[in-house]
Design goal:
By secondary structure, the protein is α+β, with helices and mostly antiparallel strands. Helix content is 56%, strand content 17%. It is elongated and about 55 Å long.
Length: 106
């Protein structure tokens, strides 16, 4: 019997998967503003904040609070650890869909 790959529970929640997926589309050092990410994902500020905190606690995203002129700004980016975790997650999902293991796919 083939081994069923584990899915990262931090990423697997639907809202966090959407966040990580959106951030993975950015270049490695690019950041997106919180309001723009909120708009793209059509999430409330509170809901997005909760999921970003969980991802930040896991080291998958970096949230930077700064100012643009006199206006406060919150910038978000996917960390290298987050990119690697997302790559592992997508490989595990592919393996599940193909009926094999993640290790067999690489």
């Amino acid at each position: 019997m083939t081994e069923i790959p584990e899915l990262d529970p931090v990423i697997h929640a639907q809202a966090r998967l959407r966040v990580v997926s959106a951030l993975s589309a950015l270049r490695a050092d690019d950041r997106i503003t919180f309001p723009r990410l909120q708009e793209l994902l059509k999430m409330t500020a509170g809901n997005l904040s909760v999921h970003l905190r969980k991802l930040e606690d896991a080291g998958y995203v970096e949230v930077t609070k700064t100012h643009q002129g006199r206006t406060p700004a919150t910038l978000v980016r996917l960390t290298l650890r987050g990119r690697l975790a997302f790559d592992d997650y997508t490989a595990a999902v592919r393996a599940l869909l193909d009926g094999g293991t993640a290790k067999e796919q690489t």
